[in-house]
# Entry
Amino acid sequence: MAKSTAALSLETGMLAFARSIQITEGLFYATSSPRPELQTPIEILEKGVRGQSSEDKARNPGSSNPQSVEYAIVPQGHDGVRLAFSIRFMPLALHPHACNNTDVGAAYERLAAAYRQAGGFRTLALLYLWNIANARFAWRNRFQSDLMTVALEMRGGGRLTFNPFLLSLDQPATRDDLVAALVEGTPAALDELIEGIVHGLSNDKHEAFAVKVGWSAVMEPGQEVFPSQEYVREEKADERLSRVFAKLPTFHAGRDIMQASMHSQKIGAALRHIDIWHGSEIHEAPIAVNPYGGVQETSAVLRDPKSKRSFYDLRAKAADLIAGIEAAGTPEEISGDAHFVMANLIRGGVFGASSKKAEANG
# Structure
């Protein structure tokens, strides 16, 4: 007999989910095809440049605008770049990290259990893997080369390598698409990887599934590399520099240097470009999962409260949401709204309701 969903609520004053996909900071290395074992940390350097004032209503339009900036390039003696990081997939979306209402906490556990039973985590695993294999996480660097690969190493020694150019950035990849993009590894190993991600996100044993990721691209000596850019608050800003790149200290060739890096948050945003259910006609491509469907590049908000498609609007219909998942027999029968809600719980964050709304649902 099906359980009743009539009195279910997913809203309460204090609610938080821990991040289920933990990513390390990415590190940039220069590589050399004649010497594959050579990996030289790419150093962040400074230079002075002289531009022109060109902004609208500039104080001195067209005048010289000297400034100092940080930059990173492929050093001499190298002909490629590697961006390396690791990912841990963890089952932290199966229950809240913090919740001040046991009934609401139980409702989230019921939602996640039904989603797992219907195979929903496999849909999300394929989408996350698509954004690893297509090298979206390299951002601007992805367009700096015409020859690149993405290699994944699983715990236990399995290795798969993809050609990112055989995968679209706009159309999600199926398993067959991922098989077609393989340049190293077997379809059986790909299935093992997919199931590993599913297990990491959904198992009851608190077991993580970890992969090492390496993006390798052919690039010319002196060619510019684009790490993450720091958004420095004014009180901490270095007045000498108008552009500050992300970097981490390391010791190389007998000296301390600052190695170019990619923020884990920026890599995570790329992997979260799986919201294919937003339904917007003004932006048809996938966007990063977040409660209101914000698109940073355009400032568009695709799931604003007026749309009634935000995470908060969807979870307000707890009974219908959970009943729909429990009625699904396959991942294809799960609604896009349900996939979106679960993807937000995997993303993690604080999802508490306003005190007035929480009281009304308490």
User: Anything to note?
Assistant: The chain has one domain: 15-50+66-361. The CA atoms of residues 289 and 343 lie 7 Å apart. The longest strand covers residues 80-89. The radius of gyration is 23 Å.
